Amino acid sequence: MNSAPSALTMLLSRYTTRRDFLVLFGGAAALWPRPIAAQQPERMRRIGVLMALAADDAVAPRFVAAFEQGLRELGWVNGANLRIDYRWGAGDTDRFRKYAEELVALGPDVILATAGSIVGALQQVSRTVPIVFVTTIDPVGGGWVASLARPGGNATGFSAWDFSLNGKLLELLKLIAPAVTRVAVIRDPSVPAGAGGFAAIQTVAPSFGVEIAPVGVHAEEIEGAIAQVVRPPNGGLIVVGPPSSLFGRVDLIVNLAARDRLPAI
User: Fold this and answer.
1) pLDDT 10s digits, 170-179
2) Which of 3, 45, 57, 197 has the fewest CB atoms within 10 Å, counting from its CB?
């Protein structure tokens, strides 16, 4: 999140600079023989923010504070020359679609998206409103940008994870629990990038002598899925991302793994 304010404010600043230049150059040529008109106040800019978190999540205030602080440092103050409209998706893809429509309807200058599935929901509503994304995995594979070098379209931003690191998760699991021979990989089936994370783990699994089983679950199905993992011996667990719909279930996953003494990443 910390790098997102810079990208947004740079985008807004470039737009403002270009606009001021055109007004100055074109206006001077057209109005030179006439009295100079009084300067009009700058139009208030508008940013839409669609969070994958729930509004009452413990980390939500920190994200908002960091975002707005970064904007203030570059001269954009919420409530002064800028209005920010927040929406909280709580990991629910239906909410993502609903709030995407609401934010686009407000006519923002740019929208901040904190998950790839949010970018997808926004692009279904508009292919013209600029979108800056953060914490997004595999934006090319997700179809949100054409390439990392030349995103094209109306979305750009920051990729938060390299799929190759998922192989390191399995290596780490074997270091802390060498007896593990079976690993369940939990992923949200509604998030396309989860398949890439599983594929990276599956590629390195033979070198560690581990059998991998994909477990595609929604948030409400986690407890049952973990129960199936612990029944046979020598089991382990990895949760791959982006787990936007699992944000509110992190404590549950940790507690269940601890209760069942299940090695987990």
Assistant:
1) 999 999 999 9
2) 3
